Amino acid sequence: MRAGFDRLAGVDDVLDRVRELSARTLLFDIEPLVAYWDSDQEALDRGVAAVLSQAEAVPGVQVVCFATNSVRRPSVLSQGAGVRVVYLASAGKPLRTAPYRSFPRPGVVIGDQIATDGILARRLGYAFVQYHPPLGGLPAGPRLMDRVGRLVRPLLFTRPG
User: Fold this and answer.
1) Is 149 exposed, middle or buried (0-12, 13-18, 19+ CB in 10 A)?
2) What is the dihedral of CA 131, 134, 140, 143, to 10 degrees?
């Protein structure tokens, strides 16, 4: 059976949906929700801190994981109050699932690509919330992955909620 997913355009909308799902684990893709693809170290650090601050305010959340297939890492990764914080660079999404297996359930993957983040969510048995910003200025690679995701979405998920 195909799982449902949501397609949302803002961090506040994403976190409102996460609250409704009563998730205990939040797995955030880095680009473009936390920091845009070609942004600098300061933007990544600021983005991780801002998203973590908002995510740890969600009742019941025990783990906030940031995962990216790039090699980018924040300068400092602070631990949230009562929330375990994990950052995975070169995560190998959606192929590698071992790093996420010990996280408490239910979980939600929040990312922009169905072909990576959506498939990872499906493999983990997590909900998938697709962060879908306006596509203007999207780099060629993510634009191509968005098209691939549109093709595989009917196979993996029901229509967006």
Assistant:
1) buried
2) 50
Domain housing 109? 5-156
pLDDT, the chain, mean? 85
Residue 124: give its domain's CATH number: 3.40.50
Tell me, yes or no, whether 161 lies in a domain. Answer: no
Q: Which regions of the chain does DSSP assign to beta strands (E)? A: 5-8, 25-29, 63-67, 84-88, 107-111, 127-131
**Max CA distance (Å), the chain:** 42
87-101 pLDDT, tens per residue? 999 999 999 999 999
**How many domains does one find in the chain?**
1
Count of beta carbons in the 10 Å neighbourhood of residue 29: 23
The answer on pLDDT for 55 being more than 70 is yes
Helix boundaries (H) for 22-118:
41-55
Using CA atoms, how far apart are residues 132 and 113, in angstroms rounded to an integer?
A: 9
Structure tokens given for 156: 């993996």
DSSP 8-state symbol, 129: E
* Residue 113 one-letter amino acid: Q
